[in-house]
Amino acid sequence: MINFLHVSKTYKGGNRALSDVNLKIGKGEFVFLTGHSGAGKTTLLKMVYMDEFPDRENGGQVLVKFGDLSFDSKKIAMRGVQNLRQKIGIVFQDFKLLSDRTVFENVEMSLLVSTSYDRAEIKKRVMNSLGMVGIAQRKNAYPQELSGGEQQRTAIARAFVHSPYLLIADEPTGNLDPENANEVFKIFERINASGTAVIMATHNPSFYQNTPYRHLVMKQGILQRESL
Question: pTM of the entire structure?
Answer without folding.
Answer: 0.92
